[in-house]
Batch of 2 targets.
Target 1
Amino acid sequence: MTTTTHLLPSWRPGPTRDSLVAFLDAASSLPPIERVAVFDNDGTLWCERPTPLQLDFFVDALVTAAAAEPSLRERPEYAAVLGGDHAAIATMGLERVGLALTELFAGMTPEQFDGAARAFMDTARHRTLGIPLRQTVYQPMLELLDELRRRDFTICIVSGGGTEFVRAISVDLYGVPPEAVVGTLIAYEFDRDDGGRPFLRRTSSLASAANEGAAKVNHIQSHLGRRPILGVGNSGGDREMMEWASAGDGPSLALLVDHDDAEREFEYVSTAATFADAEPIREVARRLGWTVVSMAQDWSTVFPDPA
Amino acid sequence: MTTTTHLLPSWRPGPTRDSLVAFLDAASSLPPIERVAVFDNDGTLWCERPTPLQLDFFVDALVTAAAAEPSLRERPEYAAVLGGDHAAIATMGLERVGLALTELFAGMTPEQFDGAARAFMDTARHRTLGIPLRQTVYQPMLELLDELRRRDFTICIVSGGGTEFVRAISVDLYGVPPEAVVGTLIAYEFDRDDGGRPFLRRTSSLASAANEGAAKVNHIQSHLGRRPILGVGNSGGDREMMEWASAGDGPSLALLVDHDDAEREFEYVSTAATFADAEPIREVARRLGWTVVSMAQDWSTVFPDPA
């Protein structure tokens, strides 16, 4: 397959881009059914700082709920979130706090939750970057998604975030349909209305393990039914998925986004909270020969131009 | 959209075909993201008599395993299956027997199980029809799948059968990729080999509820992230899924296959074992205004011509 200079225009020439293009060309020898790419979302396709953007949606809902029912402010998880008390949140654990926030949406149908998430995303702005949240997606990744589609890849978003929240943005932001989103899934209950018509109601329990680490591999197989050959991530929570994607026999690539661009985005060492004492992901990447994307050096543009 | 006489050639002219074509035309007014169709597999896309065809695969594996390890014959579930003792199977319950058979594959990687299922399907023949199992798919349904694809539908198989078994046949038989198969899922375990490389190993436990009845609705939302507008099934286990698909606000269709063709296939009243005391599905269809397909009257051909 011929690669032109127009390919991936926001990826600067260099070893990272060469490695990516070499993989794309090698993959074209495979039957399309084997061309499967998985992408983490937070910190890989869009910004995850200062906190994961889904938290903004939760906080927005909490503020509204607490205005109507002030006693909610007394619940420790909600008090910590409303007060921005990161130490208290860390002590309680993100899963406990996340599940408490999920309770705010319990009882909604899938359509109602989707509507709430879309309404939030229509107007929300990033807290420090001063741009709409919808615009904190990485332009080079949008180009990569487009190029993969041109090459008949099946693209799946494999996020630690809530499945239905990511689905509410995935079509508009990434061109990825809801069925290609695998995240942390909240269980539904089946019920019937007074007329006997069936509907689903959100609960506040996990349907399966939170989608981080080894659970990502498990959920990819459960959902996609085969091993991906391209794994793209940025944190310890993506490690197993990236190892699995790159451990097959044919062409494969593990692509790690390194957040080293304090000027245009954020500079931080990506870790998943639940993997805090694990080997730093940059070290894993070096040891296993992954391709590491330096945001500062490899990307000529970070965010898309405002349309 | 103009419908020609070449559309759905194996569907005989009449009210059933008219209803189906009217739905297809109405659906073309919807955005493609809303064009979602779900199909049951056993008895809907292919034959399920005298017993679900996946059971043949299990029995084949059991015979092989019992030859190597004769003590397996003493296990009650295996003895009942090997002896064709339907009464004993019914007493123990299909789920218990199915899970016991699933143990035969515990420890396999997804690729190994896929290989075993494909190897079986390559040569297996139907026990009474005398044709290859691969050929017991319904020609009119293959035409409907093709027509839906032409109209940009997302097609999903929602089967009570094993997810990974159906995935092993879905591409070749139906043109449906593995990620669009939702069935009864056996859980995987994540592990690493001696070299530290990750892999998945089948267990013999359900990852989620067996995919029948209300669980089908739950799993469709979990997997597809939206409500289908076409629900096609044949048994009590498909009832909730078909009700859900046809309870939306826009164009929708619930299409029930009635097995009334003793001459070319089988004549039986479709029931799911777990729903034996529920309202017969034909009655549900009549009450809710579903479109009922008479295999004897509405289909000019049942099975495809041998290629």
Target 2
Amino acid sequence: MSVIMQLPEGLEWAAHSCALMASLPGTPLPVRILAEFFDLPEPYLGKQLQKLSAAGIVKTRRGPSGGYMLADTPENISLLQIVEAVDGPTKTFKCTEIRARGPSAVAAGNYLRPCGIARAMWAADAAWRRALAEVSLHELVRRGMAETPPEQVERGAEWIRMKLQKTT
Amino acid sequence: MSVIMQLPEGLEWAAHSCALMASLPGTPLPVRILAEFFDLPEPYLGKQLQKLSAAGIVKTRRGPSGGYMLADTPENISLLQIVEAVDGPTKTFKCTEIRARGPSAVAAGNYLRPCGIARAMWAADAAWRRALAEVSLHELVRRGMAETPPEQVERGAEWIRMKLQKTT
């Protein structure tokens, strides 16, 4: 068996949901409509939205016309915040201190610095997070709008307007 | 259930095995001795060494005094090569093109560029790999020697000499 390091697919769903919310400011979107819009299973998408909510990225409005909205402006939300909301802040490399095992090990107090292998892995992890922190949700939406066929943007907005009218 | 993106622990084992081989140039190390040196399960460590071998990072010498050796100088082996040998070159973010799903989707041919979210995730993945590519095994060993208690270096070298003498 080979374990491959990959982010959970819920991240893609969470990021697209945030991008849609950013392009419809002030419009609460129910999980049901988001799930239908992206053709995703509602319960699992709901879990991703709860994670975004726990991280303070989205907030909910209750009531018949309630739903999820961004808790801040898209300029103030980074892709890193979305990634860490879904995947957690745990580093991609875990050091189990194998230096301190086996016949050559010395007493634990003698290891004054973290292992060089761990430090190199953590530095790369930090470079990954820095790159994610540099991209705002605003920037993602700007790029997304530029590359999405205009027909889709119109069709999507129209579909959501229609769905929200039926709800209220 | 929460899935957290993390590298397999076999990576730590593979990296430490390579560092040990680098500090004992020209000395083939059997899996059995490596496993005992790091206090690791031999069959699973053996799998990591096979992955390193398949990637051309280590080579084997057969026979009673055989074992694993580096296939190149430590200056020419990067931490990225070791990571990709163990974890594969698969990107940490998989795009399932949810743009092309649901009621707003247009025909697949209309998506001329990869999704902006995927491109941002892949750019961060590339930054991570660049950081790993910049660290050579030589550099890892240099740092490791500087931070390992001298007592451990001597004890480890002595233990391996003794083990190898018993083997031959």
